[in-house]
Amino acid sequence: MSTIKFTPPVVKRDEEVRREEKVPDQDELEGKQIATETVKGNTDAPPPPDLNGLEGGTGSEPVKEVVENKVYTYVEQMPVFPGGNDALLAAIQKNTKYPPLALRNQVEGKVFITFVVGPDGAVSGVTVQKGIGSGCDEAAVAAVKTLPRFTPGKQNGRAVSVSFTVPVTFAIK
């Protein structure tokens, strides 16, 4: 429960007190003329632009949306691989062929691959973000390029390109 504090009155001289105008009652305003003269507007305003020669719209077409063709890193609705993220990693691992050079040299580790899922769900722009060499980088890129189409990501209700980064693990069994 809130409490209301008492504010003490301030004593001032008559000269220091501002007189507040009293708002007239409805009865006082009845029958009175509101304005006695026409007030002129701003005459310093520039003249309106010349619109001759411009085409007018028909009024039946909707306003066209400005579409940016940029690659997003995160969107309202992210792209979905058929089966989810676990299925995505499993599909990459299944299609990854361990390079003979890496097997001979006992090379193990993770290769981070960046790719773009386009508005049509297709995988493109496959690049190595962080590699381990010995042919593993190329094998990981080849595996990611074989992925099927994703359900595309959406931003503001429209399909857009989204960047993805996935780890590809190379381990000798």
TrEMBL record:
InterPro entries: TonB-dependent_transducer (IPR051045), TonB/TolA_C (IPR006260), TonB_C (IPR037682). It is a single-pass membrane protein. Its main location: membrane. Residues 83-173 form the TonB C-terminal domain. The keyword Transport applies. It holds the Pfam family TonB_C. PANTHER family: PROTEIN TONB (PTHR33446:SF2), PROTEIN TONB-RELATED (PTHR33446). NCBIfam families: tonB_Cterm. This is TonB C-terminal domain-containing protein. The lineage of its organism: Bacteria, Pseudomonadati, Bacteroidota, Cytophagia, Cytophagales.
